[in-house]
Each structure stands twice: as structure tokens, then as C-alpha cells.
Design a protein that fits this description.
The chain is mainly alpha-helical and 161 residues long. The chain has a domain of 63 residues. The radius of gyration is 39 Å and the shape is flat. Strands 1-2 form a two-stranded antiparallel ribbon. Helix content is 69%, strand content 7%. The protein contains four helices and four strands.
Amino acid sequence: MMHKLVSMHETIKRYQKHTKDSQANNPPSEHNMQHLKHEAAAMMKKIEQLETSKQKLHGEGLGSCTMEELQQLEQKLERSVTTIRARKMQVYKQQIDRLKEKEKALCAENAMLCDKFGLQAWGRAGSSEERAVVPSAEISEVSDVETELFIGLPETRHKRH
């Protein structure tokens, strides 16, 4: 039984060696070459079509287009723009979400530091609806600001009432 197994492996090895040698010695058949040439020509034609399509999408070479082709091109571009805008909005939303998370973390850190040093938090605290209380002395300072409108050059300006 062992002898048959060894001879079987030897037969398989000889077959594999023979097929490799025959493939190396035999050039591709004429039929195979014709097939490869036809396939290469088809690929070149497809590449030319894609180049022409790309130029039209860039707005080049539109002189030979019919009204129907121009409308189809416009619709294709509008669909592309819609897809691009949807993706852009998705990216913006993701950025906003990340910034909101960062804001929450910074507000929490700010509140912790204020508690640690016994200070009152400024700006936002915890959530976006909560506001810190501004001391009344600072409110009165802010309300003393003049908000009158002057028109003209500094030396000739007049107060508008």
C-alpha cells in the first residue's frame, strides 16, 4: 500500500512538471492571441469613452452634444451634487457632535476646577441651558456704556437723535 502511495505522488509530480514544461515551451496559440488583441482593443475603446465622459463632466467638449445629452449630463451632475451635499452635511453633523462632546467635557472640567478653587463658574456650566450668574456690580458697569450714534468725521460729526 505504501509503495502505491509513493508511486502516486511521483506520478503527480511528473505530470505537474510536464504541464509546466509544455506551457513554457508552447507559445500562446493564435486563437488566444486574437482574443487578447480583441480584449485590449475593447479596453482602449472603453478608456476613450470614459475620458470623453470625464471631459463632459468637467464642461469640456460640449459642442457636439444634443439637447437630450446635455439634459442627461445636467441631471447626472445634479445627482452628484446632491450626494456630495448630503455627505458634507453628514461630516458637519459629526463634527458638531464631537464639538458638543468636547464642550461638555470642558464645562465639566471647568466646573470641577471652579469647585476646587472655590470660584463661581463663568459662561456655560454643565449643560448648554445653564448659565452662570454675573455679579450685580459688573452688570452696573456694563450698563454705563454710551451707545449714541455719531455721523461724519470726528471733528465735524453731529449727534443723531
